Amino acid sequence: MNKIKLIIIREYLTRVKKKSFIIMTLIGPLLMAGLMVVPIWLATKDKDIQRIEVIDETGAFINQFENTAELQFKNEFISIGEAKENLYNGVYTAILHIKSVEKNSTVEMYYKKQPGLSTISKIERTIEGVIRSAEIQDKFKITKEQLAEIQPNVNVKAISITVEGKEESKNVGISTALGFGGAILIYFFIFMYGVQIMRGVIEEKTSRIVEIIISSVKPFQLMMGKIIGIALVGLTQFLLWAFLTSIIYTIVMSVFMIDPSTISQTGEMMQQANVRELSAHPYQDIIEGVESIPFLQISVAFIFYFLGGYLLYGALLAAVGSAVDSEADTQQFMLPITIPLIFSFVVAQTVMENPDGVMAFWLSIIPFTSPVIMMVRIPFGGVETWELLLSMVLLILGFLGTTWVAAKIYRTGILMYGKKITYQELWKWLFYKG
Amino acid sequence: MDLLHVKRVYKSYANHQALHNISLHISEQSIFGLLGPNGAGKTTLIRIINQITAPDKGEVFFMKELLAPKHIAQIGYLPEERGLYKKMKVGEQALYLAQLKGMDKGEAKYKLKEWFQKFEIEGWWDKKIEELSKGMAQKVQFITTVLHEPKLLILDEPFSGFDPINTNLIKKEILELREKGSTIIFSTHNMESVEEICDDIALINKSKKILEGKVSDIKEAYKSNVFEITFLGNMIAFSNALWTAFEILESGQENGRMKVVIRANKVSDVNQLIKTIVNDVQILSVHEITPSMNDIFIQKVQEVMPETLEEEEEEVIHE
């Protein structure tokens, strides 16, 4: 036991001290924080007020545009030429020139500050609405008030009912983002660190030090020491990333004086820009959605499925490393191992569309696909406790199984040189005696 | 007392037998030469002694106890194919390997410094193995093998990769280690070094032991009363002096001297021969030609399986 500890420490320290590890650890959070900060920064940029001067030649759009925090409209009764000349002297940032109320008309907008897509679509909708209202009033001979009365306002609110009969409203967007993020992280970590095990085994084999080491420790101890040591490197990197990302995020946010609450509002407003009318409590369902996400369950599950998936695949990759003489020879054995992993990543999208469907269920139970698929499913909240337990137990059995197989192949493979190994041979190794 | 006793060991792999009924007695504080052509089963035997692999049948006793994991700390192993972690620093690596053998870190560090001084390589402590030459790395590897002062040292081709100066250095160390109480199993193809330093040998061929004993006894047993005589004078006079007890193996002339190699039936016959010819020719030297270990090796191996040496098998290491 003491010796396995020595091996774990060596495997851990040599990797953590590597320049590439330190660089990755520092660059990773910068990239992640960048991914989080830049869109928000852009979003807040757009928030500066657009003051739009409306030159309405038809007279139908007086005070028809709704003013918001970012968008202010004002009708001016001057000629378009005069307005254009004064654009750079005046307070306005853009001029909206409406020439007709034809159904398929074009409205021109002159600007010194480019309007966002949401601004343009808002203007379009308003103009269309005015024209439509006028047409309806005209056709059915009703008054403006009568028209306003029949104006519908519908907003879909998704509510899931749990087994216990509790109602929870969900925000599909947040669940999707979390599910996808979790799946990417698990996939990435299993791959990156699993391959490190394989490289480590090949390094020991080609440098021939392996024979010296297994004259001191059992091959199984060496293999497990390496797998555990590298798992700790993975966890270290993950925790450092999480920690550094949050620090960078906080620093950047405070430097730019961005108040997170206004950011979420901006984000939501952009999201809801396509909704015809805002509901009475526009952010209510998002707040409820965030509250309904099982964050604790996600974090615990992430660590469990990362370790489980890593151990399952890592053991097999250790076996592959032991069976070959160089990394170039790994291809034939790598493919069948990585197919389930890549497959589960590819179908993650489909699973998200139906997170509690038959395919999602089975793929989240089978050990080879469960780490990725379960991480996709959990944020949607539909995973039953028994499903989770079954999946976890099977994953544990799965990695015990692959470790057993790997140990058998490993202890024969590490001392086998200069031979092209076939699957048939690997099969035979499983039944060799000590 | 036997330090190691290998008792009727068998080991086979899927498609061939590596060891067939091998028994060895290796006495304490001796240098034991384990000889045999490539693929004979030496490496398998060494791995069994190192507990890297287990025999199918038979037992190995270490100091009268059945070989067990606790003996690992008392065995040092230098494999034929050397290797260290290329990117790890010399000192760190030696410490790691010593600790894996069960040494305490502080003690290992202290002893390492001693050895580094002895080999005059103190400056290498913080160098990476990949920065060293092959010979330098071999030195480090030798130190890591003997650092924990094992009772049994297994050296597989210890001189390969060393220049003559370092070969002597290592040879001296090996003999010194024996004086200090170590027992050494020495596996090699280099028969000269066997004659020089081995006390006993065993020859393994095609998974079977075909020869065993003290080096001196074996040489005695294999000598065949062959003498080389050089003289000045007439070859005819010499030939006339011979009788049926002799066979001329070689004869020739070198710088005006006659040189004849003859085989006698008995050593005493040679005495008689000299008495006879001493009147006709001027004898310059008479000396007995003893067979070298190299000759014995080739002779024994070919006796058993004449084709063995011709189809020199490529080194396939099994398990």
Explain the overall architecture.
Helices cover 65% and strands 6% of the residues of chain A. Chain A has 434 residues and is an alpha/beta fold. Chain A has 2 domains: 2-41 and 172-429, no CATH class; 47-115, D-Maltodextrin-Binding Protein, domain 2. The two termini of chain A are 20 Å apart. In chain B, the strands form 3 sheets. Chain B has a 6-stranded mixed beta sheet, with helices on both faces. A 4-stranded antiparallel beta sheet of chain B has the order 2-1-4-5, covered by helices on one side. A 4-stranded antiparallel beta sheet of chain B has the order 12-13-11-14. The interface between A and B is medium-sized, with 28 and 32 residues.
List keywords for this structure.
heterodimer; A: 434 residues; alpha/beta; D-Maltodextrin-Binding Protein, domain 2; 2 domains; four-stranded mixed beta sheet; two-stranded antiparallel sheet; 65% helix; 6% strand; B: 319 residues; Rossmann fold; 10 helices; 14 strands; 30% strand; elongated
What is the gist of this entry?
The complex is a heterodimer of chains A (434) and B (319). Chain A has 434 residues and is α/β, with parallel strands linked by helices.
Number of helices of chain B: 10
Largest sheet of chain B: 6 strands, mixed
Largest interface: A-B, 28 and 32 residues
* CATH homologous superfamily identity of the largest domain in chain B: P-loop containing nucleotide triphosphate hydrolases
Explain the layout of strands and helices.
The complex is a heterodimer of chains A (434) and B (319).
Chain A: H1 2-16, H2 19-45, E1 50-56, E2 71-75, H3 80-86, E3 94-98, E4 108-111, H4 117-140, H5 144-149, E5 159-161, E6 167-169, H6 172-206, H7 210-213, H8 219-255, H9 260-272, H10 284-292, H11 295-323, H12 331-353, H13 358-365, H14 370-377, H15 385-413, H16 423-429
Parallel strand pairs in A: 1-2, 1-3
Antiparallel strand pairs in A: 3-4, 5-6
Chain B: E1 2-13, E2 16-27, E3 31-35, H1 42-49, E4 57-62, E5 65-66, E6 75-78, H2 90-100, H3 105-118, H4 134-146, E7 152-156, H5 164-179, E8 183-187, H6 191-197, E9 200-205, E10 208-214, H7 215-222, E11 226-232, H8 235-241, E12 246-254, E13 257-264, H9 267-277, E14 282-289, H10 293-304
Parallel strand pairs in B: 3-8, 3-9, 6-7, 7-8
Antiparallel strand pairs in B: 1-2, 1-4, 4-5, 9-10, 11-13, 11-14, 12-13
